[in-house]
Amino acid sequence: MPKDNAGLAQLEQQLRRHLRYLNFPAANWVKGQTAPDGRAALDVAIIGGGACGLALAFALMREGVQNFRIFDRSPEGQEGPWVTTARMRTLRSPKHLTGPNLGLPDLTFRAWFEATEGAGAWEGLDRIPREQWMDYLRWYRKVLEIPVENNTDLRRIDPACGADGAGGLFRLALDRDGVREDVFARHVVLATGRAAFGGVALPDGVSGLPRERYAHTEEDIDFGALTGKSIVVVGAAASAADNAAMALEAGAREVRMLIRAPEVPRLNKFKGIVYPGYMRGYCALEDALRWQFLKTGLDARVAPPRASMLRLKAHPGFHLHTGSPIHSMEMQDDQVVLQTGRGERRADFVIFGTGYAIDVTQQPELAPFADDIRLWRDAYHPPEDQQDDTLLRYPYLGEGFQFLPKPGHEERAAFLERLHLFNAAATLSHAPVSSDIPGINTGTERLVDHLVKALFKAGQHEHLTDFIAFDEPELLGDEWEESRE
């Protein structure tokens, strides 16, 4: 937690002064809509109170869109992965990440860090500890007075276009600690992270294992229970390496990492696209080029971070096995037995670092109208040498991260233009501006610009009526005297 309360207080005082200079928060100008329950419908409902949700909330407040609410299923202070399922010691990006500052120096991670640790500490910082990043986000929420409603899970999205008069609104079925609440909103933004377009990806055969014998890296894992155990970790991505290290540090007897490829990937090609031109310009490219960019990066296979692999190397109980695709899994003699490309492996517990599924039909809140949502397979047909079934399942989004209807579904699914996907599944359409920290400011600016335009257009006739009726005089008649000559 922050050490220098005086330095932090000074930063907060300066930030608030600068926000006053910017007339923050701006006065609400949006023409509201009444919900069927008689209350004002939300202009925007944000699902997810992590960095993307917080940045969007701040941007809306700056633009005078004040009628919004943020819902997050996690307890307060545990939004996002940083102190739950993220298990690296530090962020993987360099320390110069600015954070969701939206152009304000006082809101950057560095400003917060120097205020709490002292200016001289910055030079000695290598990479940002993940827990410290979470402390920064907690402060961001607090200092900007962003009202996140925690312990609230989204169960269902109903377009609500029926006889109840809720045309143009969504009905959100929310669960807060077991209590149901229905909320009506004009726009819904799903700022829901990495596993929110189909859940996690698990290999065939895992369903035959007892549930207590395996976990995905996205899940809560009791590493203390792995002490003295033999562990297999499947996968070579960053999360696989970090979870393997956590198991060893918790006292696992051995950890064997199984990698399908014949060698460990050594390159993270996506480091080559972290610059403003790509983040801002990618979404304007032709479909073929967007496809080629992302497929090139994925086909190169992403190397685990060097720091993560060195963390593993320090443990004599770590073993790396390349060329080891899994052919089958079953229980024998109270152990998980995996048949691989290099023979049999036995384990007391298996951790799958196998990434995330892309399957809209498996996302509960989207499943009722999943067949209406346009996917890349509905919009683009790659050449034979660039086929990729996973990429074809990505959503094909509009310029404001809005879902688009499949061809022929435009009339019945017009509501999709008000449902926005601001998470990792937007990457093929928009670049990593709604999931990875370096692009978060770009993505937030793009989304809030779209929302503001849409809300103004929705009230265009009322705004025109107001303009026609505007009669506040500039001159009061006492500014001059009539000449008598």
Automatic annotation (TrEMBL):
Keyword Membrane tagged: no
Keyword RNA-binding: no
Keywords: Oxidoreductase
Matching PANTHER family: FAD-DEPENDENT URATE HYDROXYLASE, FLAVIN-BINDING MONOOXYGENASE-LIKE PROTEIN (AFU_ORTHOLOGUE AFUA_4G09220)
Protein name per its UniProtKB record: Oxidoreductase
Species the sequence originates in: Sneathiella chinensis
Origin organism lineage: Bacteria, Pseudomonadati, Pseudomonadota, Alphaproteobacteria, Sneathiellales
